[in-house]
């Protein structure tokens, strides 16, 4: 190529280079922050990856928690969870305010809680049993469905007087006691003492409903059953009556000093204790207390276990969001640990 041809090409290259530099400078001065923001966002995302992976561990990590005051109510078996978990939720999520509401002219319980939920008096309900077909039907008649979210494992414990010498009971024997077919402990290998069974009324909550359905097979209580208003009242009667028997949520019974929870079985001699062995004698309590047999509850070896549920209305409204958020909070690692501290068993 000749020198005459090279000069125009060189000049053209210089012009193009200068033009590119000038154009780039003009574009950057017009948009001085775009690239910086992209770089900044990228650098922020990198260290946040562990936090994203840890989502669900704490109350603070739960998404879609609504703002407002939400009424809830239901099962009395949930009382220890409410005491342990709800204040911690309020501390971590002050925007999600919770208010426990008891029903008017009725005892608090799973059934009354679900009914109050259907009637629009609660944002969500706490239940110690699954909702019933008739409850779902009533909700559907109102134009919405129900869903239940399991959050913890519980069991029913059967307790007797601390001095009663009985090694354990089968589920059939418990049924015979509460339907009036067996009325003396001597019929079960124990001392010659009349059996005095106690129960709350079936209208009082999910625990009694579950007992009647699963243990009594739907049969009515015998005439010798004495009804009490609360578990506290029943435990006081057990402590003072040699032949008394009562059933309740295991966390309400197992740690008590004045009574004795019994091992239960599906067949005679195949008993599983609701407490961790060895049994802590009343004389050692309260310095030491019996603890739940968590492994037996989780595995299903213990014969009377159940889930605890958050019951939510499927309306697509903020009340549904509140119920789902409450369940999600309880299912975090923080929530499950607090449920354990309340005496129940983790579900996950």
TrEMBL record:
<keyword id="KW-0812">Transmembrane</keyword>
<dbReference type="InterPro" id="IPR050811">
    <property type="entry name" value="Phosphate_ABC_transporter"/>
</dbReference>
<protein>
    <submittedName>
        <fullName>PstS family phosphate ABC transporter substrate-binding protein</fullName>
    </submittedName>
</protein>
<dbReference type="InterPro" id="IPR024370">
    <property type="entry name" value="PBP_domain"/>
</dbReference>
<keyword id="KW-0732">Signal</keyword>
<keyword id="KW-0472">Membrane</keyword>
<feature type="transmembrane region" description="Helical">
    <location>
        <begin position="7"/>
        <end position="28"/>
    </location>
</feature>
<keyword id="KW-1133">Transmembrane helix</keyword>
<feature type="domain" description="PBP">
    <location>
        <begin position="71"/>
        <end position="331"/>
    </location>
</feature>
<dbReference type="Pfam" id="PF12849">
    <property type="entry name" value="PBP_like_2"/>
</dbReference>
């Amino acid at each position: 190529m000749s020198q005459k041809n090279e000069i125009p090409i060189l000049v053209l290259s210089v012009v193009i280079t200068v033009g590119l530099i000038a154009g780039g400078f003009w574009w950057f001065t017009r948009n001085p922050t775009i690239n910086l923001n992209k770089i900044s966002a990228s650098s922020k995302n990198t260290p946040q990856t562990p936090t994203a992976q840890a989502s669900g561990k704490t109350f603070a990590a739960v998404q879609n928690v609504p703002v407002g005051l939400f009424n809830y109510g239901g099962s009395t078996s949930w009382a220890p969870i409410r005491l342990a978990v709800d204040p911690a939720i309020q501390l971590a999520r002050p925007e999600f305010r919770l208010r426990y509401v008891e029903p008017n002219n009725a005892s608090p319980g799973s059934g009354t809680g679900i009914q109050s939920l259907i009637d629009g008096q609660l944002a969500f309900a706490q239940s110690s049993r699954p909702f019933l077909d008739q409850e779902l039907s009533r909700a559907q008649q109102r134009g919405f469905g129900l869903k239940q979210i399991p959050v913890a494992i519980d069991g029913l414990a059967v307790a007797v007087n601390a001095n009663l010498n009985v090694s354990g009971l089968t589920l059939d024997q418990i049924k015979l006691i509460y339907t009036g077919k067996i009325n003396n402990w001597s019929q079960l290998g124990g001392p010659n003492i009349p059996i005095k069974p106690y129960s709350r009324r079936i209208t009082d909550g999910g625990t009694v409903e579950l007992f009647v359905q699963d243990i009594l097979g739907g049969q009515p209580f015998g005439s010798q059953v004495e009804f009490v208003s609360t578990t506290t009242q029943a435990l006081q009667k057990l402590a003072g009556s040699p032949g008394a028997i009562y059933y309740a949520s295991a966390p309400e019974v197992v740690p008590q000093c004045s009574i004795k929870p019994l091992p239960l079985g599906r067949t005679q001699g195949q008993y599983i204790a609701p407490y961790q062995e060895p049994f802590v004698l009343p004389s050692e309590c309260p310095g030491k207390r019996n603890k739940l047999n968590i492994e037996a509850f989780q595995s299903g070896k213990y014969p009377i276990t159940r889930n605890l549920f958050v019951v939510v209305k499927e309306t697509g409204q903020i009340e549904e969001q509140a119920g789902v958020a409450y369940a999600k909070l309880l299912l975090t690692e923080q929530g499950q640990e607090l449920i354990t501290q309340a005496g129940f068993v983790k579900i996950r």
